[in-house]
UniProtKB/TrEMBL annotation:
Keywords: Acyltransferase, Transferase. It comes from the Bacteria. This is Acetyltransferase (GNAT) family protein. GO terms for molecular function: acyltransferase activity, transferring groups other than amino-acyl groups. The lineage of its organism: Bacteria, Bacillati, Actinomycetota, Actinomycetes, Micromonosporales. The keyword Transferase applies. It comes from Micromonospora kangleipakensis. PROSITE patterns: GNAT. It holds the Pfam family Acetyltransf_1.
Amino acid sequence: MLIESRPATDPEIAALVTAQQRELRAADGGLDGQATLTHDDIHYLAAVVGGRAVGCGGLQALDGDTGELKRMYVRPAYRGRGIARQLLAALEELAFQRGHAVVCLETGTYLPAAIGLYSSCGYEPIPVYGEYVGNPYSVCFAKRLPVAA
């Protein structure tokens, strides 16, 4: 597997984000609302297997110290292989390189596998923030990144 940077305009990123949003709407009974699919200010990474992007995740700066993980997704046929965990580690490294001390994220209460991944990787629950305030299905997590020596 290869993890590589991709622009928001990449057709494989767009296809993965569309699949992620479709899966979220199915999981939450259509409660997710209207999310903008890709954003130019998100730095995307793609997990590539056999020349095909099978997973993605993005990093968006909230402020100078904090980056937010966005659009984490692995195609169902590729789950259970550690791809999401490797993608998460690569996104944390990207956040560190960009000077972020903290990485945060939002996910849904109806996504126990995602919550399990984040918790097992050192993310701790935080109060719901930003656009997620008031959404009863949102849960947020954060992780403080190691300080450079």
